[in-house]
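Work Package 3 (structural annotation) set out to generate three-dimensional models for the target panel prioritized at the project kickoff. During this period the team completed the workflow that converts sequence records into discrete structure tokens, so that structures can be stored uniformly alongside our sequence database. As a representative example, we reproduce one entry of 430 residues exactly as it appears in the project archive.
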Amino acid sequence: MLQVQPVRHASANMSWASSRLAALPLAAAYLAVPLATALVRRMGPEPAVSPFLPWLLLAGLGTVWAMLFRRSGVRVKKRFVFEVFAFLALAVMLYLRQDVFLMQIELALPLIVEAAPAWVLGFCLMWAMTFGVPDRAAFQRYGAALGLLCIADLTAGIVLQQAATAQRWLGDPDVLAGLLLVALCAGLRPGENDGGAAEPDQGRPSWRAMILLGLAACLSRTGLFGAAWIYLFFGRGSRTARVLTALALFLLMAATFLAPLSRPGGMHYLDYWLWAKSVELFFREPGLLFTGVHFGLALPFAIPQELAPIWERLTGSPEQLGVQLAQIGPFWLRFILGWGALVPLAGLAGLFGLLFRRMTRMGAGLAAVLFAMGISTPLFHDPGLGVSLGLAFILALSAPKPRPEIESATHGPDAEDATDPARQWDMRPL
């Protein structure tokens, strides 16, 4: 009997590879960067390497892929040697001549640095257009892996230092908690059926439990507060289970104030002082709420003598030079000081307009992460946390896709053509 075998095209393989590469930024943010940070700190003094370097490499990968293949996986053209070599030559030239290039843009460099949130979100959009968006399972999988690393990090600190300190080999505990909060939001229950298409309930209970344990191991106050809030209002399980889990997280957060825990070198004291001085500055000069401060000038803050040693140890800058905008850690404080209050308000209005168009637990949880972690972390000024949060927002705002079994049966690469003449009743072999 004659049988027609479906043909698997090379474009289907490329499309599959593209979807697999969609989660590559999560692998970098949740695993590669923390492990590299721990390795470098274990070996000795940290070298002066830009935190944006891994993301520049990923941007280069995305650029090369976009030159070679379309989103569907179809190759753009048969020969592409010239384009690839031209791009690589440009990248090598910029790397070798980076000092000259930075001198040419010296006047605009503060503006470029403060516009980092726009570059990070632009990277997220371009990555999603090129490779697609990571699914909920990918966020939870890498979040569980990071949670396990955070537990091991805390355990090693207790064994080696005989105390539970907030110092982390993997990086800033608040940034680590922010990454875990993004993964926690991806594990929230998906929304209801939307026009015949429903989000799959991805992930495993063990992954979500590991994420919560990792958050507890970070001992981040804003991270614990955000986790308790998200789990209480949007979490899984019965109301009693959610209340008890949130209560345990709140109690652990309170314990961090009573126990001798602190961020490395008294950094939290500097954050409190910067917030207080900034509020005082806005009351003294209300016009700065509309214009922001000058990017290239030091802020009108006089560092107290009792904080001067901490400031010099953490920033490597003498206190006589004052406070630069790029030295401020909390995202919301830095954003409002640099751009005024109108730009953040406009951005939040646009974001909430999109969130209200498609209300989901994941979107609501991510909004809580945006507010809570922006108080203590660089957020979008940290590329790992910013890219993870940006991709999560794109996923939360995206329309749900058809169920996998329906999609694979109708649009999959192996689906047989409904008009295949060999399948017609009058064309079947006798």
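The two ends are 8 Å apart (CA to CA).
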